[in-house]
C-alpha cells in the first residue's frame, strides 16, 4: 500500500511540474491569441489530470477518525452561533454603546528554542526569536438592547481554522452562561501576517504528516504524531490565551460613543497583479469608540493589505505593520487598536524605505515600521464626525462546502489543517467542509461582511475594478455588493471564523495560476473554481434573511 501511495504522489508531483513548464509557455504566448488559446486548453486539460490524480490519493488515503456523517452534525455542539434573533431598525431609549478591549501576546517564553514553526508555507521554517510580537486583540461590543454582545477579535497569524475558532467559542459561551452574560456572536479573524507562528499546521512537518497520518488514520489513532508535540502545544497555547483575552474584554466593558470614518489609504497599497488601480482599491472602514469615562479610545480598522513586509528568509516572529500601527496609535493617541483584514486578494504595500544608516536588524522591519506608522497616522487623524446610533444587527449562515480541489481535501485528510469534514453516503461518499459567513451591522449605517476565506476585492466590489479580467472568457454575473442592504454601506472582511483559502471570481480561477503571470493568482490552496460565486450566493441569501 505504501509503495502504491508513493507512486501516485510522485505522479502528481511530475504532472504538477509539467503543468508548470507548459504554463510558462502559455504566458509567453499571450501576445498570440491562437497560441495562447491552445496553451490554455492544454493547461486546463493537465489541471484535470492533476485533480484526478489528487482525487485518487484521497480515495486511497484513510480518513481521520473524527470525520463524521453529515447526519451526525449538530450546530450547537460544533460551536456555530446564528447571531441575534431580531433586526433592530432604530435604537430604543435603553440602547447605549458598550465596549471592552483586551490584547495579549501569543508568543511562548521559549520561542527561541528552534521548535516553533513560522506559518509561511509548506516548508518547515523554525522561529529563531522575536522581532516585535504576535498578539490577539479583541473587543466585546454591545448596544445594551438585551439581544446579546458581539465579540470581534483578530489573531496575528496566516489563518485560523473554524475548528479552533469554535473551540474558543464554546469556552466563551460556557463562560458567559456561568456569568449570566448574553452573547450573540463571536468572531475571530486572522490578520494574515506571514511572519507569525503557525496557528494552522500548514507549515509543520508536511512529509511527516503525509506518511504518518496515513497509518494513524488506518489504526484509528487520533493522538499527536511523534515529533509534532511542540506544534500541538502551541495550538493549545494560542487557544487558551485567546479565551483569556476575550474573558478579560468582557470584564472591561464600559459605556461610550461609537464613531466611523472611511479612509483612503490607496497611496500605500497596490494590487500585485496590476489589475486594480489605486483609485479602485477598497477604502478602510475605521471605527472609533470613545468611552464616557475618559479612558483610552479603541480603534477597529478593516485594512486591505497583506502583512508581508518581512523577508521570506527572516526567522523572527512578528506581526508586520500591524504591530507598528498599534504602537503609533498607543504612543500618539493613547488608544487601543484592532486590525481586521479587508478583501486582501493580492493587495500589498507600495512604499519606498530609505535604509541608509540602518543596522541589519533595523532593515528587517523597516518596511513594516514605516507602513504601520503611515496607517496608524491615517487612522488617528481621520474625520470621525459620523456618530453611529447604538444599534447592532448580526446574523450568521452555516455553510457546507464541497471542495472541487482534492488537494484541499487531502490537506484535511493528512492533518495539515484541522477543518471539520463531514461525509454523505456510504460506499460513494461526498465530502463537505463545515464553515460559515456573517453580516455585522452598526448603527443601521455601516456593516461588515464576514467571509471565511482570503477574499479578492473584485468578488465583492464587482470585477469592473479589474477591467473584467478573466481566465475562461465568461462573465462575472454579480454587481457591487457594498450597497445591497438599503441605507447601509458594507465593507468586506477576509479570513473571519475560518481559513478556507483563496476566494476569487469563478471566471479568473486558474489552478497554479501564479506561474502564468501577474494577471492570475495561485489557486492551488483554494476550495475550487466556483467558491466565489457560491459564497456570494450565500451572502445574498444571508442578507435576504435579515
Q: Classify the helix fraction into a percent range.
A: 25-40%
Structural class: alpha/beta
Q: Rg, please?
A: 23 Å
- Counted by DSSP, the helix tally is 12
Give start-end ranges of low-pLDDT stretches: 1-32
Find the count of extended strands (DSSP E, 2+ residues). 21
What percent strand?
15-25%
> What does the largest sheet look like?
9 strands, mixed
C-alpha termini separation: 52 Å
Question: So what's the overall shape?
Answer: globular
Rounded mean pLDDT score: 88
Describe this structure in words.
- This protein is 32% helix and 22% strand.
- By secondary structure, it is of the alpha/beta class.
- Among the domains are: 1-60; 91-388, no CATH class.
- A hairpin with a 6-residue loop joins strand 9 and strand 10 (298-303).
- The longest helix has 28 residues, at 33-60.
Helices and strands, with pairings:
Layout: H1 2-28, H2 33-60, E1 68-69, H3 75-78, E2 97-105, E3 129-130, E4 135-142, E5 149-155, H4 162-179, E6 183-190, H5 206-219, H6 229-250, E7 254-263, E8 269-271, E9 284-291, E10 298-303, E11 316-317, H7 321-333, E12 336-341, E13 347-349, H8 360-364, H9 366-381, E14 386-388, E15 392-401, H10 406-413, E16 421-424, E17 430-442, E18 446-450, E19 454-455, H11 457-461, E20 489-493, E21 502-503, H12 531-544
Parallel strand pairs: 1-16, 3-11, 5-6, 10-12, 18-20, 19-21
Antiparallel strand pairs: 2-4, 2-7, 4-5, 7-9, 7-14, 8-13, 9-10, 15-17, 16-17, 17-18
Helix pairs in contact: 1-2, 2-10, 4-6, 7-9
